[in-house]
Design brief:
Layout (H helix, E strand, L loop, with lengths): L13 H10 L5 H11 L14 H10 L6 E7 L5 E6 L5 E9 L2 E5 L3 E3 L14 E4 L2 H14 L8 E4 L9 H12 L11 E5 L3 H8 L6 E5 L5 H7 L3 H4 L1 H15 L3 E7 L7 H11 L4 E7 L13 H13 L3 E4 L26
Parallel strand pairs: 4-7, 7-8, 8-9, 9-10, 10-11, 11-12
Antiparallel strand pairs: 1-2, 2-3, 3-4, 5-6
Helix pairs in contact: 1-2, 4-5, 6-9, 10-11
The protein binds S-adenosyl-L-homocysteine.
Keywords: 4Fe-4S, Cytoplasm, Disulfide bond, Iron, Iron-sulfur, Metal-binding, Methyltransferase, rRNA processing, S-adenosyl-L-methionine, Transferase, tRNA processing
Subcellular location: Cytoplasm
Function: Specifically methylates position 2 of adenine 2503 in 23S rRNA and position 2 of adenine 37 in tRNAs.
Length: about 350
C-alpha cells in the first residue's frame, strides 16, 4: 500500500519537512539531516539514516516514505545512454534517460503520464494524457539516475524533455525545479536546468516571473503557422508569433538565451525554402537553433531527410548568421531518443 503523495519526502520542500518534524515533536534541524541523507548520501530508506535516533526513524516511517517510485528496468546502449523505466505508485510507468557527453551528465525527465499535445511525430503523446506527475515523482527520476552513477561520475544537468508538456503541469514542475536547484536538495544550478515546451504561452509568462535563471527551449519545428499546425495541433491556438513574443519577454527578464528545437522531417519542413523562411523568422532574435533529424517512430510515416538535405538546411541558417547546432541523436537503439519515449503501461483502474 502506498501512502498519499504528500507523505513522500521527495515531494516536500524544506519548510514542509520541517513542519512534519515539528508535528512529531522533533527539532526542525532534523529536516536538513534527513534531506542530506536522501540528496547527498543516496539513502532510500529511513533505516539507513544512522545518525537519527531509532525512535525518530520509526515515527517517520509511520508518517511518510522516502521514495514513491521504483526503477523497473534499465536499458543501456553503447554510447553510454541509459533508459530507466520508472514505476509509479498507481502502477503507471514513465521513462527517464541518462545521457553522457564527456563530463556533462544529463538526466532527461518526464513530467506527465502521457501527453495531451498529440504532436504528429512523437510517440509520447500517442495514448493522450493520463495524469500529471507530482513534484516528488519528477525529483525521484533525477535521484534514481544520481544514485545509479558510479562514484567518479556526477549528475551535472537536467532537461525537462521526457514524456509530457512541462508547462502544462506548471506548479509541480516548478516545485520539482526548486528542490533540484536547492542547496539542501540536488544542488544543480539553474543554468544547468532546461525546460522544453511546445509553446505554452501562459507558462512561459509565468516562468519569466519566477526569478529562476533556467534555460528555455521551444519545440518550434516549422517556419510558418500552416506547416506547424499540421504537425503540432496546439499551434492552431497559439501561433508562432505569440510564442516568439513570449520568448523575448523571457529573455528580457532572465537574460537567458532561448533555444529553438527544430526536427527535420522529409517533405514537411526541411527544404531550402523552409530554411530561408526560418532564417527570416528568427532574424535579430537572440537564440540558438538545435537542428535534429527526426527519429522515426514505427507507427508514423514521417522520415528524416537525406544527410545532404540536412547539411544544406544547416548551411543556409549559418549563412544568415544564426547560431546553429546539428545534434547527434543518442539512445535511439533503445528507443530513448527524443520523441521515442512512451508509456509502457497505462492504468485505467478507477476511471469512468
Ligand atoms: N512537450 C515538450 C517537452 C518534450 S521535449 C516539448 O514539446 O518541448 C521532447 C523533444 O523531442 C521535443 O522537442 C519534441 O518535439 C522532440 N521530438 C518529438 N518527437 C520526435 C521525433 N520523432 N524525433 C525527434 N525529436 C522528436
Amino acid at each position: 500500500m502506498y501512502k498519499t503523495e504528500i507523505s513522500s519526502i521527495t515531494n516536500m520542500s524544506l519548510a514542509e519537512l520541517e513542519a512534519v518534524c515539528a508535528s512529531i515533536g522533533e527539532p526542525v534541524y532534523r529536516a536538513k539531516q534527513i534531506l542530506s541523507w536522501i540528496y547527498n548520501k543516496g539513502a532510500t530508506d529511513f533505516n539507513q539514516m544512522s545518525n537519527l535516533p531509532k525512535d525518530l526513524r520509526r515515527k517517520l516511517a509511520e508518517k511518510c516514505q522516502v521514495f514513491q517510485t521504483t526503477v523497473d528496468t534499465l536499458t543501456q546502449t553503447k554510447d553510454g545512454t541509459e533508459k530507466f523505466l520508472v514505476r509509479l505508485p498507481d502502477g503507471n510507468e514513465i521513462e527517464c534517460v541518462l545521457l553522457r557527453e564527456g563530463k556533462r551528465i544529463t538526466v532527461c525527465v518526464s513530467t506527465q503520464v502521457g501527453c495531451a499535445m498529440a504532436c504528429r511525430f512523437c510517440a509520447s503523446g500517442m495514448p493522450g494524457l493520463e495524469r500529471n506527475l507530482n513534484a516528488g515523482e519528477i525529483v525521484e527520476q533525477a535521484l534514481h539516475v544520481k544514485n545509479h552513477l558510479p562514484p567518479d561520475e556526477r549528475l551535472t544537468n537536467i532537461v525537462f524533455m521526457g514524456i509530457g508538456e512541462p508547462l502544462a503541469n506548471y506548479d509541480n514542475v516548478i516545485k520539482a525545479i526548486r528542490i533540484i536547484n536547492a542547496k539542501w536538495g540536488l544542488g544543480i544550478g539553474a543554468r544547468r536546468i532546461t525546460i522544453s515546451t511546445v509553446g505554452n504561452i501562459r507558462g512561459i509568462h509565468r516562468l519569466a516571473q519566477e526569478e529562476l535563471q533556467i534555460n528555455l527551449a521551444i519545440s518550434l519545428h516549422a517556419p510558418d503557422d500552416v506547416t506547424r499546425s499540421k504537425i503540432i495541433p496546439s499551434n492552431k491556438k497559439t501561433g508562432i508569433k505569440n510564442i516568439i513574443a513570449a520568448t523575448q519577454e523571457y529573455f528580457q527578464s532572465t537574460g537567458r538565451d532561448i533555444s529553438f528545437e527544430y526536427i527535420l522531417i522529409d517533405g514537411m519542413n526541411a527544404s531550402r525554402q523552409d530554411a530561408e523562411s526560418l532564417a527570416r523568422l528568427l532574424k535579430g532574435i537572440q537564440c540558438n537553433i538545435n537542428l535534429l533529424p527526426l527519429n522515426p517512430i514505427e507507427e508514423f510515416n514521417f522520415k528524416p531527410p537525406s544527410r545532404e538535405a540536412i547539411e544544406t538546411f544547416c548551411k543556409i541558417l549559418k549563412k544568415h548568421g544564426l547560431i546553429v547546432t546539428l545534434r547527434r541523436k543518442k539512445g535511439d537503439h533503445i528507443n530513448a531518443a527524443c520523441g521515442q519515449l512512451r508509456l509502457q503501461s497505462i492504468n485505467f483502474y478507477g476511471k469512468d
